[in-house]
Write a structure and sequence with these properties.
The complex is a heterodimer of chains A (411) and B (270).
Chain A (H helix, E strand, L loop, with lengths): L3 E17 L8 H17 L6 E17 L3 E5 L6 H8 L7 E7 L2 E5 L11 H11 L4 H15 L14 H13 L5 E5 L7 H16 L3 E5 L3 H7 L2 E6 L2 E7 H19 L3 E4 L2 E9 L3 E2 L4 E9 L3 E11 L5 E6 L7 E3 L4 E8 L7 E11 L2 E14 L28
Parallel strand pairs in A: 3-7, 3-8, 5-6, 6-7, 12-19
Antiparallel strand pairs in A: 1-2, 1-4, 8-9, 10-11, 11-13, 13-17, 14-15, 14-16, 14-18, 18-19
Chain B lengths: L1 E4 L8 H7 L1 H15 L9 H20 L8 H23 L6 H6 L6 H28 L10 H25 L3 H15 L14 H4 L3 H13 L8 H26 L2 H4 L1
Helix pairs in contact in B: 2-6, 3-4, 4-6, 4-7, 4-8, 4-10, 6-7, 7-10, 7-11, 10-11
């Protein structure tokens, strides 16, 4: 299907940021009156308003893309790249400064689930209220009421004020309402950040269902696994412009590579213990293809004389589940270091059979003055290995953590 | 259905959207009503207690000041004025603060923002109906029977609603940018009670102050309520009524204009 549901043409959004002295973010009447009253005086003096300087900030600049019916498109990018501003424009909360957007149908946006929920109202009342806010008619809501309640699993609590709900129940209810809205275009912003694993699975399932039904989905998330599982295409926004727009694997890889680089260039020496600095740490290649070898290089420098009795390399999932530990004691510890001494270590992992995704690398270290783990020091991106035997692999999130090599034959 | 988003575009579809979102308006009004008395011990009884206390204070005040006149019971005379006054002041203060009370909605979802202050007035209207029912019971108790003039009551009610809407739109939009108006509106309400014919009657206003007095748009509306409810036993001066109508039309015009002009910036400014 190639009919365009959503066309964004050269959209830009400018915010004016005024820097003032000694005022908070609300303009007060006094300021407005004062500036009106003194305006003629300033005009006579020929001077500008001295207390305010205005900066233009372009949150979006010349963004263009089109989305066809039934496409599920991921929107990725760092915080502050303009994703939220774009969504606000698409959902008509704020006007673009330049360009135009053509939408062929109703847009429902799930910007932050539970918008418009009132804590004092019951689950039942909130379903109707929230549905009305999202543009659903009362008749439509009544028709889908049971389905919504079943999806959210809140049957027993329908008449309880939602302020007594657990946060999980709250999110489930909110997502259920929005997911049953059946708009032509569904904009989803980071709903999967909350809720338990089972619920996340059902959300993903629901979104698959929505897109199979021919509706268009624009999905924003920092969860690359979810983006890759759901979307066929991804748009990467960087500093308000489109940095990449293409097949999901491609855009995600380019985005992750750029952010991994950004993370590394930012960090100088890291103080791992009171007496020990980590001058350099490198994993290569990064991204590494699943199943390939990885080299690591690290350079430690002692501020004071110290003795390293334990050093381990830790690999973590993004959720900080420890996946592997490399016990470096086996290569000749303890290491005694004099003040000012630097020590280089080079090593390798023969094969890293992790399922593609983003991982974290950290250290465990014990010296005479410190004992502990340093997590999340580095990001390691594992890319998918080429598919074997002509089958399309399952989405990363269904494949666990380890990509085992195996063989088989049928008798 | 094609939707085009462009700088300054929203205006064209605005009134159609307002109609399409009418259900949301009633949901918001019902939410405001449902929420207002949640977790209060006596609940909806508050809707009666406020006018009752006002009534008691003003009846006592009239006794002390020797303002009583005519054959009508004071209770009826004052209550017939408390009714529109309370409606107007609740509607105006609720609608003025309605936008900043719905920040979450405004910054997250699109719909014509006019819905919010209108819904706030709808919620105030429910309190009005409760007080009206109470007034009906009181009138029956005192044996005061309205005549055909009571048919004009919806007109005066509409005037009160539209006047509070017009001023409310202006105040709500101003409050988004200038929070000062949060303090100005309650103050205006306090002053307004003293210059409106709630404790006194318009006929008791000295001749030389009549001109200034006519500038209060509520005078005509409150007199209209008394006139239509009490079978014309109190006068309704055409000058006061004309002033009310002119004021209402002007407030509605200016309020709508300013609201619409600033509306697109609400999400960014709030």
């Amino acid at each position: 299907m190639s009919n365009t549901m959503l066309a964004v043409q050269g959209v830009g959004k400018r915010y004016r940021i005024s820097h003032r002295h000694g005022t908070d973010r609300y303009e007060t009447l006094r300021d407005a009156i004062a500036s009106r009253l003194t305006a003629p005086l300033r005009w006579l003096n020929g001077s500008q308003r001295p207390q305010t300087t205005v900066d233009d900030f372009w949150a979006l600049r010349d963004v263009s893309f089109t989305i066809a019916q039934g496409e599920v498109v991921g929107l990725i990018g760092r915080n502050g790249a303009g994703k939220s501003t774009l969504l606000k424009i698409l959902s008509r909360i704020t006007d673009p400064t330049t360009g135009r957007v053509v939408l062929d149908g109703r847009v429902a946006s799930l910007l932050e689930v539970g918008t418009g929920f009132h804590p004092e109202l019951s689950g039942r009342e909130n379903i109707f209220l929230n549905a009305a806010i999202l543009g659903m008619s009362r008749a439509e809501t009544s028709r889908k009421f049971d389905e919504i309640v079943a999806f959210a699993e809140v049957e027993q609590f329908l008449d309880t004020p939602v302020k007594r709900y657990s946060s999980g129940m709250y999110v489930r209810l909110a997502f259920a309402v929005a997911a049953h809205l059946e708009p032509e275009i569904l904009v989803v912003d980071e709903v999967l950040a909350v809720g338990d694993a089972d619920f996340q699975k059902r959300c993903l399932g629901k979104m698959h269902e929505v897109s199979r039904g021919g509706r268009t989905v624009l999905f924003v998330s920092h969860n690359m696994a979810a983006i890759q599982a759901l979307c066929s295409r991804a748009i990467w926004l960087e500093s308000g412009t489109v940095a990449a727009d293409g097949a999901v694997g491609d855009s995600v890889r380019r985005y992750l590579t750029s952010s991994a680089n950004a993370a590394r260039t930012e960090s100088g020496p890291i103080r791992v213990t009171p007496s020990l600095d980590l001058l350099r740490f490198e994993l290569s290649p990064n991204p590494v293809t699943s199943g390939d070898a990885v080299n690591f290089d690290l350079e430690l420098s002692a501020r004071d004389a110290t003795k390293i009795s334990v050093l381990t390399l830790l690999i973590y999932s993004p959720l900080e589940v420890r996946l592997a530990i490399l016990d470096l004691r086996s290569i000749g510890f303890p290491i005694a270091m004099a003040a000012g001494e630097t020590r280089r270590l080079h090593g390798w992992i023969k094969s890293l059979p992790l399922v593609e995704g983003e991982y974290q690398v950290g250290f465990g270290i014990q010296t005479n003055d410190y004992f502990g783990d340093k997590l999340g020091l580095f990001a390691l991106t594992v890319a998918a290995r080429p598919a074997i035997g002509g089958i399309v692999p399952f989405a990363a999130e269904y494949r666990g953590v380890i990509d085992l090599e195996f063989g088989m034959h049928s008798a | 259905m094609k939707i085009i988003i462009e700088p300054g575009r929203a205006a064209t579809d605005y009134w159609r959207d307002l109609w399409r979102y009418r259900e949301l308006m009633s949901f918001l009004a019902r939410r405001d009503i449902a929420v207002r008395y949640k977790q209060t011990a006596i609940g909806i009884a508050w809707a009666l207690i406020r006018p009752l206390l006002t009534l008691a204070v003003f009846v006592a005040f009239r006794r002390m000041a020797g303002l009583q006149q005519g054959a009508l019971p004071d209770v009826i005379l004052v209550l017939a004025a408390v009714l529109p006054w309370q409606f107007f002041s609740t509607a105006l203060s609720e609608s003025s603060s309605s936008l900043i009370g719905n920040t979450g909605l405004i910054s997250k979802v699109y719909f014509p923002r006019l819905i919010i202050p209108i819904a706030a007035i709808g919620a105030a209207f429910v309190d009005f109906l409760i007080t009206l029912a109470f007034l009906a019971v009181t009138m029956a108790w005192y044996g005061v029977v309205p005549d055909a003039r009571v048919l004009a009551l919806p007109v005066f009610t509409a005037l009160a609603a539209l006047l509070s809407l017009g001023l409310g739109l202006l105040m709500a939009a101003l409050t988004v940018t200038y929070r000062d108006f949060r303090y100005i509106v309650p103050f205006m309400m306090q002053l307004g009670l003293f210059v409106s014919p709630v404790a006194f009657s318009s006929s008791q206003v000295p001749e030389e102050w009549r001109g200034v007095y006519a500038l209060n748009p509520l005078a005509g509306i409150i007199d209209g309520f008394r006139w239509s409810l009490l079978g014309g036993r109190t006068p309704l001066e055409p000058a006061l009524l004309a002033s009310s109508i002119i004021f209402t039309v002007a407030a509605l015009g200016v309020g709508t204009w300013y609201f619409r002009r600033t509306e697109r910036g609400f999400a960014d400014a709030i």
